Amino acid sequence: MQIDDYYLMEQALDEAKKGLTEGEVPVGAVICDQEGEIISRAHNRPIALSDPTAHAEILALRSACSLLGNYRIKEAILVVTIEPCVMCMGAALNARISRLLYGAADPKSGAAGSVYSLHQDNRLNHSIEVISGVMEEECRKIMKGFFHGRRGG
Length: 153
Fold this sequence. Notes:
By secondary structure, this protein is α/β, with parallel strands linked by helices. It is built from five helices and five strands, in the order H-E-E-H-H-E-H-E-E-H. It has helices at 5-21, 46-49, 56-68, 86-94, 136-150, and strands at 28-32, 38-43, 77-82, 99-104, 129-132.
């Protein structure tokens, strides 16, 4: 079965928009199985939860692992609007995610190729296939709009 990367990214963008309406940095994530069936979805919530680890990826991973009853979800695919940070890539590696799709790069703290390349660090015992630039413009636009609004236009 062919997985529709654009559909999955649209779902992640929908999550990012939820975060935007809550005043959170608008990052959204979904996790799906190898057939493309969505297992979990989340958006950033560090402000709402008073939790610096409440990034969209972490929350989606927690939900998927809980649902599947295992902290390792080897066949899962993580789809996120913005390139994951070091914390989120570390969690994805520990969960044994097989593939990561992301929209826009994060040139300040991205850990899937922009600043760090944790997904292919040979010193680690797992690697993740990374596909970047899926609906990149849409993902970048929501982030730019958020920060532009925060800085007063």
